[in-house]
C-alpha cells in the first residue's frame, strides 16, 4: 500500500489552524512568534474568497493547498501550500493537487497560478510535470543610492497633484485601465480593492494635463523602511513623450524625503519600455521569479 494513501484529502476546518502553521513551518522555516500573524493572514484569505484543503490522517496534517482569487483577474486563483518533506514522493502531493483542481473546477476556477523562485526548484519541477506551464517571469529592481537623483523635469507641461480619498480611488482605476488596457501585465483593480490597500491617499500621485488625469504612480513606504513604486502608468495618447519619466522621478524624490532606502519596483521582464526607464535611473535587478499556470477547463485529472 502506498504510504500516501493513508491520508485523506479534505477541506480545511478552523480546528486545523495550529496544525497548518506547523506544516507551513516545515515548508519554509518560520519563527514560532509569527504564528498569530500567519494565522490571521490565513483567516483573512479564507474570508476574502480563498479555499483550503489538507492531507490529513486524523488530526495529523502532512500538507495543505490554498487557492486565493487574484484581484482584477476573474477566474484566476493563486495556488500555494505543499507537502512536508517527510511525506514527499509518496503520491500525496499529486492526490492533493488533483483534488484541488477538481474542486476548483466545480467552484468556477478557470486557472491556477503558482509563484516559484526557480524553474529548477522542487515545486516547479513537480508542477511542470503535472500540467502547469511557464506563464511569465517577473523581477524586482532596486535603487539603493538616492543621493544623485536627477532633478524633476519641468516638462512636458503637466501638473503633479494628489486627490481626496474617494476621488483618488476612482481616478486611479480610470487611469490604470486606460494605461494598461490590452497589456499582458494588466491586472485591473476594483475601487474596493484600491480603497482596501491604500494606506494614505497621498501615496497616489497623479499627472494632470488639460484638467484630466493622464498618469498615476502608486508610491508608498513599507514597514521595513523600504520604498515601493508599483504601478506607474500613463494614458496611451501621452506615452513615449517623457511623462512617465517625470512622474517616476517625482515619486523617487518624495520617497527619499520620507526616508525610504532602498526603493523597489516590480515588473514583468517582458515590459522592455519600463525596464529601460528604470535602469536608466540606476535601478538594478535584485531578484526574479516565475509564475506557472494551469488552465482547468478541459484538464483531465486522474
Number of strands: 12
Class per helix and strand makeup: alpha+beta
Beta content: 25-35%
Query: Into which percent range does the helicity of residues fall?
Result: 25-40%
Radius of gyration: 22 Å
Provide the spatial order of strands within the biggest beta sheet. Answer: 1-2-3-4-5-12-6-11-10-9-8-7
> What is the subunit arrangement here?
single chain
What do you see in this structure?
- This protein has 302 residues and is α+β, with helices and mostly antiparallel strands.
- Helices cover 31% and strands 30% of the residues.
- The protein has eight helices and twelve strands.
- The chain has helices at residues 17-27, 35-47, 92-106, 122-128, 165-180, 191-197, 243-257, 272-280, and strands at residues 8-11, 51-57, 60-69, 76-83, 111-116, 133-143, 159-161, 204-209, 212-221, 227-234, 263-268, 284-295.
- The chain has a twelve-stranded mixed sheet, sandwiched between helices.
- A hairpin with a 6-residue loop joins strand 3 and strand 4 (76-83).
- The longest helix is centred in the middle third of the chain and has 16 residues, at 165-180.
- The radius of gyration is 22 Å and the shape is elongated.
- The two termini are 18 Å apart.
- The model has no long low-confidence stretch (mean pLDDT 92).
A few lines on this structure:
With 302 residues, the protein is α+β, with helices and mostly antiparallel strands. It has 8 helices and 12 strands. The model has no long low-confidence stretch (mean pLDDT 92).
Amino acid at each position: 500500500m502506498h504510504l500516501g494513501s493513508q491520508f485523506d484529502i479534505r477541506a480545511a476546518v478552523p480546528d486545523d489552524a495550529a496544525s497548518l502553521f506547523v506544516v507551513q513551518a516545515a515548508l519554509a522555516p518560520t519563527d514560532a512568534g509569527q504564528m498569530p500573524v500567519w494565522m490571521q493572514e490565513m483567516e483573512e484569505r479564507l474570508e476574502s474568497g480563498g479555499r483550503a484543503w489538507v492531507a490529513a490522517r486524523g488530526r495529523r496534517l502532512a500538507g495543505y493547498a490554498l487557492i486565493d482569487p487574484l484581484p482584477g483577474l476573474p477566474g484566476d486563483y493563486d495556488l500555494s501550500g505543499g507537502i512536508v518533506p517527510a511525506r514527499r514522493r509518496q503520491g500525496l502531493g499529486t492526490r492533493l493537487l488533483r483534488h484541488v483542481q477538481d474542486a476548483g473546477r466545480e467552484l468556477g476556477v478557470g486557472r491556477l497560478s503558482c509563484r516559484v523562485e526557480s524553474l529548477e526548484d522542487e515545486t516547479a519541477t513537480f508542477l511542470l510535470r503535472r500540467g502547469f506551464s511557464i506563464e511569465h517571469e517577473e523581477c524586482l529592481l532596486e535603487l539603493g543610492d538616492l543621493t544623485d537623483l536627477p532633478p524633476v523635469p519641468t516638462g512636458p507641461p503637466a501638473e503633479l497633484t494628489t486627490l481626496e480619498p474617494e476621488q483618488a480611488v476612482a481616478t486611479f482605476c480610470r487611469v490604470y485601465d486606460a494605461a494598461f488596457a490590452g497589456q499582458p501585465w494588466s491586472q485591473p483593480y476594483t475601487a474596493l480593492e484600491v480603497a482596501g490597500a491604500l494606506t494614505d491617499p497621498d501615496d497616489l500621485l497623479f499627472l494632470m494635463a488639460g484638467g484630466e488625469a493622464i498618469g498615476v504612480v502608486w508610491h508608498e513606504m513599507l514597514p521595513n523602511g523600504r520604498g515601493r513604486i508599483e504601478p506607474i502608468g500613463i494614458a496611451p495618447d501621452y506615452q513615449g513623450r517623457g511623462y512617465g519619466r517625470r512622474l517616476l522621478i517625482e515619486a523617487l524624490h518624495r520617497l527619499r524625503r520620507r526616508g525610504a532606502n532602498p526603493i523597489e519596483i516590480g515588473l514583468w521582464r517582458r515590459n522592455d519600455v519600463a525596464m529601460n526607464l528604470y535602469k536608466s535611473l540606476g535601478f538594478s535587478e535584485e531578484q526574479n521569479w516565475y509564475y506557472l499556470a494551469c488552465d482547468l477547463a478541459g484538464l483531465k485529472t486522474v
